[in-house]
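FORM 7B: Structural annotation worksheet

SECTION A. Query
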Amino acid sequence: MTNKRQPPNNTGKKSLTYPVMKAKCATCPFRTDERGQYVCPDVTKRVMQRVVSEASQICHHPQLSGKQETHLCRGARDFQLEIFHRLGVIDAPTDAAWQRRLYESGSATTPTKSPVNVPTA
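SECTION B. Predicted structure
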């Protein structure tokens, strides 16, 4: 992993904080075709399962051009936001609600700092 920022949380563990892509990249597995179908449904399904049960998805797009992977996937985050909102974990399917929840759980050091305003790849 290339990001070394590790803010403290109330569990006594260190956690990594990655900014989220501002928009879906050109090769995002969460892109849809003109019929509204995922372009690569097998990959999308695997990522969906992983981001709900294991960890957030790093955007792979920079790696395709030999750059470091430094941001989370916007498509995967949007999916997480929708699922966690439906489950009642966050109060709205937004980045702001995600940040508030992280702050409330002790995983973020400030309730208003949002790492989502970053350029797309």
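SECTION C. Observations
The chain is about 35% helix and 0% strand. Helices lie at 41-53, 61-64, 74-86, 95-105.

SECTION D. Sign-off
Analyst initials: ____
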